[in-house]
Fold this sequence. Notes:
The chain is mainly alpha-helical. It has one domain. 76% of the residues lie in helices and 0% in strands. The radius of gyration is 25 Å and the shape is elongated.
Amino acid sequence: MSDIKIEELLKQVNQELNQLFETVNTLSEEVTRLTNENNRLRMQQYQAVEQMELNSLKDKEDQDSQTISQPEQTLKNRQSGQARLQTFYNDGIHICHHYFGSKRETNEECIFCQDIIDSLGEQ
Ligand SMILES: [Zn+2]
């Protein structure tokens, strides 16, 4: 094989590697985007289910006066909301407004997320 042929081959392989690198980058960005979107949808789904359960409880309460009192129910809902957010946070997902739904890189601590969890616990 002549030197010129080898040089041409090297050039070609180099170009193909660059293209491959670009494709991997694009795929990687897309995975991040889809993961964040999935996280946001999961959280919204939880919120929707919780709201539905709350509504059906209210309906039940209207029909049945024997159910637990309003303050107890409110406390229960707040605790479940806090537990739900804590679960997402523990899974490595931001629950704060700044980065809502995005992944916490290498499980970094986030003071905004922690603020939200703390404020729910104090009320
Ligand atoms: Zn956060």
